[in-house]
């Protein structure tokens, strides 16, 4: 195992080195949180694919293939479909908003009254997403080093927290690009063909397994529908995904780069299901389906290749974990803490938050506070990172935690976000009612039907939609001035230069200097 250990150690050391490089690059809030909004199509595609394809897509995707055959690809397929829908229909408009969080978008659309409640819901979602990704380190490090669960979580979590805290989105972007390459080589180019060959080829797989393993809908129509609700719609509205859209340097980059990433997800989905199906032929009686990935890697791959594939699994987990962590910290700082601090400041007569800097409600206009803003966001990543590690150590049921997170996200925020983008008549009162009723309903229904039941997200989403429409029609339309400002921002005619000017100023240059490509 010495060669495999060396591969993993070199990979982890490289992640920390990327964090140090990112620290030197991130000199302003825009650079730290959204990589200066300057990623080109290839880097954007790679990093977007890296964040959506995490441990659940890799280890879980292979596990579903082991359990259901080729139809086990559906979970990751719905993730890819969600990313394709986001990229084709919404990404260009989202990128033009020049905001940092989903809640800031809601403030712009509804007049500044929907942000903090939606921020709390989004914070809970990103926190649980980061926690569940962090727990996955235990599985991987157990295979690699035979480490205790707590030690594995602390080790993996500490590395992600370190490079994320140091360089923010620049560090995460570079590490995600490396992780994308490692995943492509490790899973698609090495593990997939080796697994098929070791299983005797597709003809042998078909001969040894039941026919339902090769039925595209074998996992069940209701399960596929639930995946669409949770993962496809979740891709449309998650802060972790939107924050990557904000890094695109142009509308075209956001649209086409995301389309490439979504297509890659579809290929990755099929690969995971095929690997799991091959594992079922080789190991028909594993104790759990999720152990299929680790078993086939440990027993079937040659030295060196095994280390690279385990690094690929580690890369999958790290990319999702770091993306969720910076999203969680961004929401906690910009949507919750800054608003509470501003409310306290107004009560005492002291300027805080946007009032202190002269920024607008979204925080994207005017000076960004330079190094003070970076230090504040860096501190929140560190605090949230420590909290994530502690919760991951204490938590046992990963599936239930992730289900709660996605149910809250979809039932609470899908309707007001898509309603704001698509329906002019939607109002702040309707959005707040939808968040409150949808979020409360899904919590109550999970208590009644069980956390893993499908009914909570079905009924919660329907209630959210009904309340949004009824309350919006029953209340005064949104102020025309707010809608006018919203349309200007969507068209890219407002706020376009705010981040660039702040970045150049922070670097000691002139606002008229050209931005770095």
Layout of strands and helices, then pairs:
Blueprint: H1 2-25, H2 29-34, H3 41-52, H4 55-68, H5 74-96, H6 102-110, H7 115-145, H8 149-198, H9 201-208, H10 221-237, H11 239-245, H12 251-282, H13 292-300, H14 305-348, H15 353-357, H16 370-394, H17 398-422, H18 428-449, H19 455-474, H20 480-490, H21 498-506
Helix pairs in contact: 1-8, 1-14, 3-8, 3-11, 3-12, 3-14, 4-12, 4-14, 5-10, 5-12, 6-7, 6-17, 7-8, 7-14, 7-16, 7-17, 8-12, 8-14, 8-16, 10-17, 11-14, 12-13, 14-16, 17-18, 17-19, 18-19
Task: Describe the overall structure.
The chain is an all-alpha fold. It has 21 helices and no strands. Helix 3 packs across helix 8 (149-198). 78% of the residues lie in helices and 0% in strands.
